[in-house]
Amino acid sequence: QVQVAESGGGLVQPGGSLRLSCAASGSIVRVYDMGWYRQAPGKQRELVATITRDGITNYVDSVKGRFTISRDNAKKTVYLHTNSLKPEDTAVYSCNANVKLVDGRIRNYWGQGTQVTVSS
């Protein structure tokens, strides 16, 4: 059984910062690509940032220069450091991970999501 769990969301004023964390646990041999996605009310889910196991990153244009994705392979954890937050960053942020299970299968998992609200 595999779990992917996010933490670190909350309410923050415009210009503020939050650090989101996402940990994968369970019958995992290795975690490959990990990523953060977000979905605002009434909008489709969009990719925010991804990171490979080797640390190669990719960002949506709207967060470049403000958000940083990083990971700790030993902890099977990915982080999203968000700075200079704007009201339009308000959304449910979800973590996605591609993992290799102990039985050799490679599967994709989503976390439940964590709410980020940017408001004064």
Give a verbal description of the structure.
With 120 residues, the protein is mainly β. The chain has no helices and eleven strands. The N and C termini lie far apart (41 Å).
Q: What is the alpha-carbon Rg in Å?
A: 14 Å
Could you give the order of the helices and strands?
EEEEEEEEEEE
For the largest beta-sheet, the strand count, sense and barrel status come to: 7 strands, mixed
Helix run count: 0
Keywords:
120 residues; mainly beta; seven-stranded mixed sheet; four-stranded antiparallel sheet; elongated
Strand and helix layout:
Blueprint: E1 2-7, E2 10-12, E3 18-26, E4 28-39, E5 46-51, E6 57-59, E7 67-72, E8 77-82, E9 91-101, E10 106-110, E11 114-118
Parallel strand pairs: 2-11
Antiparallel strand pairs: 1-3, 3-8, 4-5, 4-9, 5-6, 7-8, 9-10, 9-11
In short:
This protein has strands at residues 2-7, 10-12, 18-26, 28-39, 46-51, 57-59, 67-72, 77-82, 91-101, 106-110, 114-118. By secondary structure, the chain is mostly beta strands. Strands 2, 4, 5, 6, 9, 10 and 11 form a seven-stranded mixed beta sheet that branches. It has a four-stranded antiparallel beta sheet with strand order 1-3-8-7, with no helix packed on it.
